[in-house]
């Protein structure tokens, strides 16, 4: 019962209730039943005996015992209830300072179990603060009578109770809260302080005992709410008041005054640290040391001072002899006085003896610090674990210590919390950077913005790629505003940031048990460092993984006094290594590191030698896993002998091949078979390496493989065996091509003198799509061209390893580029596999090397069938384990890379484990023989969470078929899986499980992802529709999934699509509306709703296709079309509001339906038959006129149809505006239809020009045909609408069309002049709309670019004046208007400072709105899919001539293909050309946490977007760059770090 959680009963979890039940002796079967029924603390409080007997089937005895003990416990808690505090803050303060203790059984609970991340962090922190013992932490007093001690107390910690004399040397203690006295005026305060000190001092001196009186510590007599000895502290405004108060000695003692002065030490002021407040408080302490040489033979009488309020002055009490009696100071009574005098000699003798003994005490036994340090760092193992992360917290290093940090250089350091502002110049950081790459961060860098996932955040800060160096208190060499501050300012400004950083790392980024925190205290400790310890202690739920290393014992004391307040003296001693020199630490730790201290890695070089690969260079190429010539050589022989069996076994059972497998094979420990595909790939590789004048610099070799056929092994084997002659690397997943290409180029040229003479680089890319591969190839080719490497030089081989369902077909398509790895073995392979199998079967049972056995049979369908048949023989079809096998088989068959967490399996099998250490064995024991054979255990590299899948996808598929047999269908199994509550609701790993389950029902097949075909629904749904031929069952399954996922609207969306596929439009409408009702703001769902009506409209048009069309028989179709338009407009509005998607489907669909509707309207007899039918139709659509024939039948539609021309024009405007943000169509020849919802437009620019022309022609045909002929003058009687339509035809209807004239220059200048002639001659007086002003200005800027001396171009001042007509509220400006403001108001070199600042303000406010508009409309789409288009660059000219359009660079880059050109610009390689440097102007700035700032504006920092994000240094640096103008704002191009 002692270790039950001491927290509110109702907050107990199910596990805690189980632990308590065990402690009172309840049988395990009942405990398990209560746990299954989810009985937690709150439910425990509500239980009664009746429930336990009827529902849990418990006997009366244990039921009665539970209720009785529960009531006792409840009463106990109520008695122990916390005292009431004056206010809530006091309570919060007291709650949070209590020691954090781990609850029994809590080890199984991790943050991953909570669905919502933010909630989890909050709850975790609250739990850490709330799960506490009722008692407060004990603490040690300041070391007695020692000079120069740096010590502090933690508020609310508890000193040992007041004490009497013990051995005369150990001081007795007296506490005074002094809370009221400390607020008194000087006279009253001094009298009160002197009275207490002198009373205590006299008592101690008379009995010859050392003593300390503490002011600011609670005495038991004082107010409730605090406990005896609790440290509160008092405010001390002026320390002199307390020091001078001891001048009362001269007035209080009639004789021996100098004795008193010698024995009473001056007051000491010990700071009290409060984690909740920044107010400074102290404990004031006075030590009394009655040395025998001073007090021998004396008794001291004192007249205590007392401030009399009645006389308003200090008076002295009568002279009294005082003594310490127990923990009190009392006067010696008259009857005891003579005895007290007589015993003076005895007391003197005791004191003399005590002093002599004290000096003779033997020194402490010396600890074996080396062993202690070793044990702490290795957790008791032989070596420091390779996988373990270390977090370092440190302050200023001494120069001598910096020469002894080799041990740190070999550690897997995740991040460093550095409190030395000079660290980058002269401290640990500067020394570390000589050997490793690191990213410079500040505490605010760890603020995670809403909506960012942890994966996105860690990728952004490169946390798993390079050490993160966090400057916690400023950085002196940094140009941005990041200065160091004093302790109190730090607590006010940085404390919260520190708390957030630590919490994020401990709760979200690194799982508990995968990291250790080392506090390396190399200089005096300040408060911020202490706060850091407290935050780690709280968030790590204890101190087991926190180590403190400190050379100076004096420095350690302050640390110790604080740390003991959190985790107790024993823990601090156990986890601290004090007094060991840094050089000794260095030597000791190097000895236990698994890798040799100075591991040298080698790469091959062009002239056939080798070169050294520097570690920091390797770390800077973080997107590559580089394979060195001497890879794995650093592995110890002991480790090899210990682990080789395990490594080989895991591989042959189906685990992924490791480099160690190949190392073992090369060193003849084991053998790894070379398949034919290995030789084929090697031949292709060797052929490619032969010199050929027409050789392309980048070659791609594709290995297409059946899932699970060993393709990855073949690819890695090729890399391994070429590592001594080529530079080899594996491309890590999820890095952008630009970064990979940059690193690949660096790897090629590393340590080579001449870029023309380098070894080729062999890059392995696994499971990527064609688009990624092509982009990477383009990036690399651009880089090669820029470096002007001679044509025919072979630079890169991309070895792509991809899943495919028909590898042989791919191989036939391109035999010189593709290799296939299939499940079928050749005769030669069969011989090799048979020999190896025989050898393995001598050592292992066949079932333990199952995947190898199946492979040696070539995964022959009959063999797999027979193998599975034998495996399943005698299996218990009704057992829960068999059910688990069928569920895993279903998921593995249909969902790539799926698994079920071991924790889920245990929940399904109803297993509970109380010891984590034996968990795996318990789980294995619970499986049937069949399950043991087919389940493969996986472990996540980052989180170390264990999970299971079936050893091979083909085996999974076969198991699924045979387990189901002819009676049961896959749809019925899927239905059972949906109904499996235990799996669905299990907390741990729930997100992954739900993701796989959703994919099973929703994710469509994609050939590009290695699937067999592209599907309209998920493969399981297609199976039910096509193979089971049961569409109603598919619908039923989706409805069930919809309900299981709490009426998930995305399932409803699929149901709508499924229904309209079968032309069940009423049902489709119902499901689309159901989805839209739940997610009324999801543009994709609203688009699906629109598609329902669009398909319905098409079906209705089809039925009246061949009949004579009248208003009556078309009314129904027109209504449906208008409903579709309404839905698409709703979808557009939602798309505008969505931040995470860029969905323009609604706009395109609206125009498509609009055109179809116009076609239907014009085919009506009333508009089609007459000679002036078209004019009649226009009259109807553009004016109030309504023909009689349509008046009644279309009565509900007239208003909407008359708005059609406006809404379509707005939509076309909007599409064209959106397109001005990005570069034009990417790859036309994609491998398959682009992924995404129906109605996706693949070539938007072509589509736009076609539809605009269709629309423009439609509304202007009647009067504009003659006007558009070249040279004709423009009639003066045209209406604004007609003029606008003519401008539309000329290509001046929007900024996209106007600026495109700069690219397609045929007759462009004349056309622009003609467009400008349609505008009024004095535009300032004309009442222009915003769009007209934009188009007018854009036409002038474009005309100036095409024809710089043209007289028709207006001066810059006139255009700036015209801009004044834009709305003053920038939120109401069009993006194109804001874009023009950034151009026209960019400061000139000869502007005055005031003019520059005014212009910067205009530009900055425009840029702010542009960025907001961009986020609302276009969002941050991966650059690979849509690239921001830079229309102009800042050049070296003046006025309008300072804008250089990209077209100007054409002659420099004209020999490139379009895609190469694009990649060249986007990657930033083009900037290095001298011709461009002469045209453009470089500007200066700096970077801070990956953000670029412009130097110039004085009032506020000007943040500039980088065009090419990877070019921004991860560190904070001073830079220069070129400036580009885009619709997202200003962009920085070609960023270079100032040397």
Radius of gyration: 41 Å
Describe the global form: globular
**What distance separates the N and C termini?**
67 Å
What's the tally of helices? 66
In terms of DSSP E residues, the strand content is: 5-15%
Number of strands: 35
Largest sheet: 7 strands, parallel
Structural class: alpha/beta
What low-confidence regions span 5 or more consecutive residues with pLDDT below 50? Answer: 82-135, 913-921, 1225-1237, 1262-1266
Lateral arrangement of strands in the main beta sheet: 13-14-12-11-15-16-17
Average of pLDDT: 80
Please give the oligomerization state of what you see. Answer: single chain
| Fraction of residues in helix | 40-55%
Which keywords apply here?
48% helix, alpha/beta, seven-stranded parallel beta sheet
Describe this structure in words.
By secondary structure, the chain is of the alpha/beta class. Helix content is 48%, strand content 12%. The chain contains 66 helices and 35 strands. Strands 13-14-12-11-15-16-17 form a 7-stranded parallel sheet, with helices on both faces. Strand 23 (761-766), helix 31 (770-786) and strand 24 (796-803) form a beta-alpha-beta unit. Helix 22 (527-539) packs parallel to helix 23 (553-574) and helix 50 (1145-1162) runs antiparallel to helix 55. It is globular. It starts with 13 loop residues before the first helix and ends with a strand. Residues 82-135, 913-921, 1225-1237 and 1262-1266 have low confidence and may be disordered.
